[in-house]
Amino acid sequence: MNKADIVDVLEDIAVLLELKGENPFKIRAYSTGARALETMEDDLGELIELGKLSGMRGIGSALVEKIETLYATGELAYYTELHASVAPGLIAMLEIPGLGGKKVKKLHDALGVESIDALKAACESGEVEALKGFGKKSAEKILTGIANRAAYAKRYHWWMAREVAEPILAGLRALPQVERAEVAGSLRRLRETVGDLDFIVASADSQLVMDWFVTQPMVAEVTAHGVTKSSVRFEGGLQADLRVVPAEQFAFALHHFTGSKDHNVAMRQRALARGYSLSEWGLTEKVGGEGAKPVGHGIISEKGLFEFLGLAEILPELREGLGELEAAEAGELPTLVTRSDIRGVFHNHTTASDGRGTIEEMAAAAEALGWDYLGLADHSKASYQANGLDEARVLKQVAQIRAFNESGASPVHVFSGIECDILPDGSLDLEDRTLDALDYAVMSVHSSFSQSEDEMTARVIRAIEHPATTMLGHPTGRILLRREPYKIDLQKVIDAAIANQVIIEINANPRRLDMDWRLWRRAAERGLMCSINPDAHSTDGLSYFDAGVNIARKGWLEKEQVLNSRDCAGVVRWFSERK
User: Fold this and answer.
1) What is the DSSP letter of 311?
2) What domains, with CATH codes, occur in the chain?
3) pLDDT at site 152
4) How far apart are CA 56 and CA 34, in angstroms?
5) Confidence (pLDDT) at 174
6) What residues contact residue 493 under an 8 Å CB cut-off, 6+ apart?
7) How far apart are CA 176 and CA 361, in angstroms?
8) Contacts of residue 309, Cβ cutoff 8 Å, sequence gap at least 6
9) What is the 8-class DSSP label of residue 563?
């Protein structure tokens, strides 16, 4: 377990002890230890290895063993048992804004509430209002917090979070008091889901910027309104923080609040190894105390910060603590695929199955995006709920696509494909002669998600080994924030795809983004080819390819590893060489 995770555990322990009414000195020891560990610049592993952790200020002897156990094993029996000893309903109450361990314990002791429903009833009956230390406003805030809890607790798809962030960022940049403004956090790192938004602004007049921010029409609640930091919740529940810093601190603040935690830890350690202390405020000489001298005055960009530490610039999407510093030092960072590299997309649906656009309409939308080609892959007959095509309808669509191409009505070449169901035993939903009539075929699982890992893995590999299989669609079946992936051994699936020259797609639908970016770097290095497919069911859905490019970039993919960065002739050649 890394340092950040250990800090979280220590903080949790302190809160749990509060809920149980433990000795305040014991509670404070864990809180103090968490703060000391969080702000510690030394490498935790080295301190443990040298036996020096007990000498660190703020970390008492009682915590040393627990920290060392968490670092070595990732588990702590004391924490597990403590968590189990507290009623789950009390822990859930902590998710309500304004309720900490002390207040939850008081509510429990005085009123006997052990669940959010019971707390809601106590607020509505006036019991909370009558409780000393609470009052009417407190009860109203708790009720508001309960009402919004479901929305507040959610994560949000990157696509949705971007739609909220973009007008705010544009508005900030338009303010005359703002010198620079950027969005940071997981949105900037192109994570598939986002917990909240972070905006960083350089300005010498922070109050006017803050006043503008908290009065935007989409703001549903202002949770903090300060001089250097303000926090709001937008309609729909997404929270956002705005931080305003002097221009000379902007690059450092932007880097820090972009994260991730693991990347930032690695950067701080690299700075320390060179005699510097790095934080969101800047770089100083590592001499300790107030006498530390600032350095790096000429750093006005993140690129300058990386160069100061002897690194090539690491783009935000790669800052996940997964070897990017080592690659940057060695000059081995990838030239990432870009939006403009994409020449067309595959796995798209028309009115023939469950899409809302005709062949002509989908081609026109592809032309508007500047693409050279478009692949259409409607569902096969087993997806009856999606009006899937049987053999006769598939062949009819092939003829329609051929006629469309021959008509010269569009500069976009349309490839005839199918999204063919992989049946529970791994066989395919269409006959071989039908599949042979197509330019390509995307094979996907749409049923029997409850199969065991061995069954699902064997099922998908059997489909991959079929000669007609060109691509594997959404290989885990996950729906982000709604449905977990089915059980499947993706390493074996990747091995089979490489061995059979089968593409695995990045399904670019913002609710899927499957295959996961964490798997792509190593798989592509071994020869796996990718295709970024929007799985569009309408003309507007073609724009989802943007989200797929994000995932490809997070997966360290270059254009040569993405089939649809090739021109039309290159795609035709790739398809023909496989047959």
Assistant:
1) -
2) 3-152 (1.10.150.110), 156-245 (3.30.460.10), 259-329 (3.30.210.10), 339-578 (3.20.20.140)
3) 53
4) 12
5) 98
6) 457, 460, 461, 464, 472, 475, 504
7) 43
8) 267, 270, 271, 274
9) G
CA distance 173 to 192: 25
CB contact at 8 A, 529 and 535: no
The length of the chain, given as a count of residues: 579
Dmax (CA) for the chain in angstroms is 82
pLDDT tens for each residue of 19-36: 888 888 889 889 888 878
For 483, phi then psi, to 5°, come to: -135, 130
Task: Name residues whose C-beta falls within 8 Å of residue 147's C-beta, 6 or more positions apart in sequence.
Answer: none
pTM confidence score: 0.75
Pick out the chain residues at pLDDT < 70: 4, 38-41, 149-153, 287-291
Nearest alpha-carbon partner for 63 in 101, 104, 17 = 17
Residue-wise DSSP of 28-94: HHHHHHHHHHHH--S-HHHHHHHT-GGGSTT--HHHHHHHHHHHHHS--HHHHHHHHTS-HHHHHHT
DSSP state of 220: E
Q: Which residues contact 398 (CB under 8 A, 6 or more apart)?
A: 416, 437, 438
pLDDT of residue 542: 98
Query: DSSP letter at 479?
Result: B
By the 8 A CB rule, do 144 and 211 touch? no
pLDDT tens-place string over residues 516-553: 999 999 999 999 999 999 999 999 999 999 999 999 99
pLDDT of residue 39: 60
Beta strands in 159-234 (DSSP E): 178-183, 193-194, 196-203, 219-225, 229-234
Q: What are phi and psi of 348, to 5 degrees?
A: -140, 150
**What percentage of the chain's residues is helix, strand, coil (to nearest 5)?**
50, 15, 35
Q: Pseudo-torsion of CA 158, 159, 160, 162, nearest 10°?
A: 80
Please check whether residue 197 is in contact with residue 185, taking contact to mean a CB–CB distance below 8 angstroms.
yes
CA distance 388 to 385: 7
Placement of tokens 């995770």 in the chain: 5
Q: Nearest Cα to 506, choosing from 541, 473, 554, 553? A: 473
Residues 6 or more apart whose Cβ sits within 8 Å of residue 432: 468
Side chain identity, residue 437: A
